[in-house]
Design goal:
elongated, mainly alpha, 2 helices
Amino acid sequence: MLYLFLGDNNVIENSKRNKELRKLENDLQHYKATVASMKTQNNRSTVSTKEEREEYFRKHHYLKKDDEDVFRIVYKK
């Protein structure tokens, strides 16, 4: 039973790695969903005019022009 507490593959290290793996898998699923959502939005925005696309992405993704300052107001609940 000495193996359980010594070496690079001990129980504690495996537990930490499994926890990190679950977190990374959750992050991956979140990012995949975000990318899919953005692709859908992009497909919808290709139909509109350039000005409408610019307005949409500036409003929803907080993009700005070089000579602008953007202030985002976040209300606490």
